[in-house]
């Protein structure tokens, strides 16, 4: 009995792992795996950092505030070009090994005086990692979103947008957009509006973390007017959790896809349990939904696991899971020919999968 259950589990695991997937919401430094973290900790023993400080294990929860403390620790470990190249390459390879065929990675460019790291070099190094993976024929298409950390305020946001704009023009299509993230309890989106508007005007796609916590209703109301091209989390948009009909209407009317990260929200305690996750609300309305990991290293997950969790929690059939992964192609910021290439790949693989 136990044996057959194990066999079934393995078969199910395999389905999700082999399922071709699109990852659209992954923060670089939050995605660093256990193995890479070990290497970084060994490189910097003087920091006295233990692995328990950089990851939230199974069954553990942290407040969102504590999650942001974790990022501070990781940033101490990843503070040079060498580190960034190492973690970015590893993260890309790990996503590829998990069956992700298209990845939009995002990261906040940082400056570190001690190591000579500049924001420009930060982005160039991530792009170099993407280039090397491509050259090594890792089976994944990777694009990059330059991230604005809301905690740093409007001037830094504007500076970052300018940098992103330069790379939009010079990166041969790899830099496709701008992310707004960072501690949602700090600052107000109204101060960042002009930077975001500028980004949009110059052709950068916008992926904004919206209503991750309940206090952001007015901010979301404002930022939805831009409008963003995708929404991160959107946990508190609907009226049942303190959002509003007007917010839902804006999201629906403009058909803005929502990036949903189950484990991140449960472990970060913005959602009380998997079965209460707002995936259900949006999915049942037939709204564009895409499952994502957010921070696979910090939350100890991967995209296969997120699909499996959504399927088991909300009773999705394999056919429905397939459709979910395929529809995500349409929500990428990739140019049309790339989307077509991905569609073709999915169509070919489907015959093996769901005969
Ligand atoms: C858990 N929910 C979340 N909400 C908001 N922002 C988040 C986040 N998870 C990650 N980040 C953002 O991503 C940074 C780490 O990656 P990078 O250094 O940019 O690669 C964090 O410092 C934060 O700004
Ligand atoms: Zn995020």
Rg, rounded, reads 19 Å
**Largest sheet: spatial strand order:** 1-2-3-4-5-6-7-8
**What hetero molecules are in the model?**
N6-methyladenosine-5'-monophosphate, zinc ion
Strands, count: 8
Gross geometry: globular
Question: What is the mean pLDDT?
Answer: 95
What is the string of helix and strand elements? Answer: HEHHHEHEHEHEHEHEHHEHHH
Amino-to-carboxy terminus distance: 28 Å
Low-confidence stretches: 1-6
The percent of residues in helical segments reads 40-55%
The description of the largest β-sheet is: 8 strands, parallel
Percent of residues in β-strands: 5-15%
| Helix/strand class | alpha/beta
| Number of helical elements | 14
Pfam families: A_deaminase
Protein name: Adenosine deaminase domain-containing protein
Family: Belongs to the metallo-dependent hydrolases superfamily. Adenosine and AMP deaminases family.
Domain Adenosine deaminase: 20-345
Offer a few descriptive terms.
binds N6-methyladenosine-5'-monophosphate; 355 residues; globular; eight-stranded parallel β-sheet; alpha/beta; 48% helix; binds zinc ion; nucleotide metabolism
Report on the structure:
The protein has 14 helices and 8 strands. The protein has an 8-stranded parallel sheet with strand order 1-2-3-4-5-6-7-8. The longest helix is centred in the middle third of the chain and has 18 residues. Helix 4 packs across helix 5. The relative contact order is 0.14. By secondary structure, the protein is an alpha/beta fold. Helix 5 links the parallel strand 2 and strand 3. Helices cover 48% and strands 13% of the residues. Bound molecules: N6-methyladenosine-5'-monophosphate (6MZ) and zinc ion. Zinc ion binds next to strand 1.
